[in-house]
Amino acid sequence: MPPSSPSPRSTHDPDGAGRGRERLELPAVPGAAGDARRFMAARLRKWGLDALVEDCELVASELVTNAVQAVACAAAAAARAPDPADPPPKVRLLLRRTPGRLVCEVWDPVDARPVPAAAATFDECGRGLLLVASLASGWTCRTCPDGGKTVTAWWQLGPELPE
């Protein structure tokens, strides 16, 4: 990460009652997806969910990338250049492990909901949500009362995976 980039901040989520819930706050910059992948891998290994690491890393990366792009598009639509002295907007990744389910939530400050695209064969973009749908048990999006949206993906934890 370049020295001028703000560092991601990982915290234990106080609502998680001490187990199975952690949050990462990231600046909405292109390198955020890599930080999200590393965070996911470390937490899943800590929880003994090694079998889910690859799929969850990809999903978290796609959701964070979409959030960062939404922030950039909103700024461009506002037709104002960001002040370099201001810190970049934030996105948040929340990882929760509940009985029978692993949940990954990514919040960003933009209300516009993501729309799965129909990418052509040689398109380089447009397959992110299709990838999320194929790797996770399911996904959804909801707008937040205080602004922004949360995109949620989840995996069912079978009997062979620890809870």
CATH class: Alpha Beta
Q: What's the CATH superfamily, by name?
A: Histidine kinase-like ATPase, C-terminal domain
Counted beta strands? 6
Number of domains: 1
Helix share, percent: 25-40%
Radius of gyration: 16 Å
Tell me what portion of residues adopts beta-strand conformation: 25-35%
* Order of strands across the main sheet: 1-2-3-4-6-5
GO molecular function: ATP binding
InterPro entries: Anti-sigma-factor_SerPK, HATPase_C_sf, HATPase_dom
Protein name: ATP-binding protein
Pfam families: HATPase_c_2
Annotate the secondary structure layout.
Layout: E1 9-12, E2 21-27, H1 32-46, H2 53-77, E3 90-98, E4 101-108, H3 128-135, E5 138-143, E6 149-156
Antiparallel strand pairs: 1-2, 2-3, 3-4, 4-6, 5-6
Helix pairs in contact: 1-2, 2-3
